Amino acid sequence: LFRDLEKVKEWNKKEFLEKQKSRPYLKHFRFHKHRLFKEVLKSLHVFHRGSSVKEKLREELHHASLLAEKGLFKACKKLITEAKKTAGEYQLTVLLFEFIKLEAELSRETNFAGIAQADLKNIHAEMDRVLDLLRSQQENENNNAEVFIEISRDGLIRENVVRAKYLKRLYRAG
């Protein structure tokens, strides 16, 4: 299927199916097409893995979860600490929250062994701080969306001076 699809210059499903009548995959074309699509996505994932800080941190989150599942709590804690620092530096708040959540789960998993009350309070305070940050970011996103919706209703404004005047008027009205 992949080789046959690769030969197609411009996609036309009806024409493609007509030309490939004798192919064994045609009987379950939809299934094979979906499977091929998934395999291409997996390949692209492997190709691009580690190409961004966000991807690396997602991978680290997965590794930390695996370490916790295997009972390697010390190594997991170390990985979480380093990843939280990186997530904070790059303002990847959602991932930071995931690492903090995993840290809290790890504390419960180990029955809070070696964790002082103050450490637990610090984890909860950090979680609250990050949740507040996430709420703030979401409010900003909502406000930006509202502004851009208002702008797009009146059409695209290309000149910076006109756009600045429009935004000032819009903010005064809101």
Contiguous runs where pLDDT drops below 50 for at least 5 residues: none
**Could you give the distance between the termini?**
56 Å
Give the quaternary arrangement of the chains.
single chain
* Percent range of helical residues: over 70%
Query: Can you summarize the main beta sheet?
Result: none
Compute the number of strand runs.
0
Sketch the topology as an H/E string, one letter per element.
Answer: HHHHHHHH
* pLDDT averaged residue by residue: 86
Note the beta-strand portion.
under 5%
Radius of gyration: 25 Å
How many helices does DSSP assign? 8
Structural class given helices, strands, pairing?
mainly alpha
Tell me about this structure.
- The protein is mainly alpha-helical.
- The chain is 78% helix and 0% strand.
- It has helices at residues 2-7, 13-19, 29-48, 53-69, 73-89, 93-109, 117-153, 160-173.
Compact description:
The chain is mainly α and 174 residues long. It is built from 8 helices and no strands.
